[in-house]
Amino acid sequence: MKLIINKMKPIVVSIGFLLILMLMFSCGGASDQAYPEYAESDIDSSGVSLEVEKNKEDSVIIPPVHSDDPDVQKKSARLAYNYPPEMTRYKSEDINVYVSIVNPTSFVKDTLMKILATQQSPSGKKTVDSIVTTNILLYKRLLVELMDPDSAFTVKRIYGEAWQEVDSTGDNRWRWSVIPLTDAPEAKLVIKVMAEKPVGTQVYIDDRTFFIKVKMVGIGQTLRSWITYMQDNKGMVVTVILIPLFAYFGKRYFDRKSKK
User: Fold this and answer.
1) How far apart are the C-alpha atoms of 179 and 256, rounded to whole Å?
2) I want to staple 180 with a disulfide (CB 3.0 to 4.6 A). Which of 31, 52, 131, 214 is the partner?
3) What's 65's DSSP letter?
4) pTM for this structure?
5) Cα gap 193→190, rounded to integer Å
């Protein structure tokens, strides 16, 4: 019996060793070898690899911003212009436009007032012009025109080209000499503003319409004042002037006819 047991010991040891090896292969590190793509990454509750999602984000290409993009070149500026509320027929006055990118509105307005002071005659009557300021958007070049839609004035450019380059190194200015020709009591002028994009296309920016009263010299102004007054007060003209006149001349006519 001892002999049989001694012969079976090596067989039992071999079987035990084989069982241990089989258990080691069935339980140890199988998942890492079977699914190596998830071994180094995190997985969310839906089972999608976060590492894969990160790679997708890295593959998105963001287009660069080009320096010649018109919207990038657009700037904000302050524009101010002056006009006389009242002018005398055949007498010239100056109208100015002043544009600045770097200076605030108060500076632009003060600068325009100083320009107007140099344009007025030292011996003449000092007039107070209306000064209007506004903010505009512009590109590289700016067009400012003074338009006379009713041909009521003579407009002559004195200073500044119609198209001007606009940058931060200096300000821009336009000036016109204006002479009213109309016999109407009021006439209008229009300041038109346009900009040019770097690609060459033109963009409408703004237009400003203002009305100027026109005075006449001597008897012309007196007659115009009477006519304007009668047009504005038609009821009073009929009851106070026309009816008494008709009554007076009618009475004289009938008196002469009765004497004959």
Assistant:
1) 54
2) 214
3) P
4) 0.58
5) 10
